Each structure stands twice: as C-alpha cells, then as structure tokens.
Give the backbone structure.
Amino acid sequence: MDPMTQCPRCQCRDVGRIGTHQYYCWSCCTEMVVTETEVRMFEVAEDGSLLEAGRVETAG
Ligand SMILES: [Zn+2]
C-alpha cells in the first residue's frame, strides 16, 4: 500500500507517519490506522484516549 500522504478526513497533506501502519494528521488531530481494506480514523482526545471517528474503505 502506498504511504498515506493526504488526510481522508480533512484532505490536507499535513500527515505524518507515526507507526508501521499508523499516521497522524496534524491539521485535524486525527490518528489513522491503515489496513489492507480500510483506513480507520480516531480522534485523539485531550486526555490522550482515542475515539473512533469513522473508517474509509480503500480496496476496490
Ligand atoms: Zn486531517
């Protein structure tokens, strides 16, 4: 899979890689976990916990 270069949520390109399959958008503070079939998005709360913010299918 190509590295993610654009946030699927806010479309900005201020996306950094934070793990093997994890990316973080500095614009909307969303953490993204990339799998073979989808991108799962999580909002990072002020206390550091993750809140699922949706998912985008990437296969097909
Ligand atoms: Zn974003």
Q: What stands out?
A: Residues 15-57 form one domain. The pocket of zinc ion is lined by residues 7, 9-10, 12, 25, 27-28, 30 (CB under 6 Å). The chain is about 0% helix and 50% strand. The first strand starts at residue 15 and ends at 19.
